[in-house]
Amino acid sequence: AQKVTQAQTEISVVEKEDVTLDCVYETRDTTYYLFWYKQPPSGELVFLIRRNSFDEQNEISGRYSWNFQKSTSSFNFTITASQVVDSAVYFCALSEAGTSGSRLTFGEGTQLTVNP
Amino acid sequence: DAGVIQSPRHEVTEMGQEVTLRCKPISGHDYLFWYRQTMMRGLELLIYFNNNVPIDDSGMPEDRFSAKMPNASFSTLKIQPSEPRDSAVYFCASSRGFGGAPSQPQHFGDGTRLSIL
To answer: Comparing C-alpha atoms, which of B3, B47, B2, B26 is closest to residue B97?
Structure first.
């Protein structure tokens, strides 16, 4: 069975600080996908990134970066120079390939508050 | 392109009433998913469809819940009779598949906030 753990329930930082959100996953499949979604206070779920299990190259998109390490089953998300607009709940999710691959398993989410 | 469209955005009704939630997926997406979000259980998959056919409904909590997808551009999630514990945010998501599985990320609608009194 697949499982995603986001150990940090809440994080509070001051604007311009860097912050890393942790995500650890469990799966028995060798082919899988990892995702990050953002849920701002307005409630919608916004897709941020998808990585497949064969691509461990880290990715950077503006102030966002992701560190995927299969050796530790982690897919961490870093926001550089955080801004108040980054305040949201962030979800890490896992999808296994194959016929069951449609099932997204979400972590519990990390509530990030960026204070001015 | 329009995103996933859900209606209504908010629904407040009394226990025992029938509730119908609606979803229009992104055009061209052949997978449609219904999720429920609660404080206690987080985000959980209820059911998903591929090419309008239900594939996995193991997440549907009980027989009071039913979902249909009569065509590629419309799906409903129905609760009858509704109970206070069904209060939650219900999300619909869609994605494009390839080779028998979704190959693209799931894109979510804005959700329906359901309150059962």
So the answer is: B26
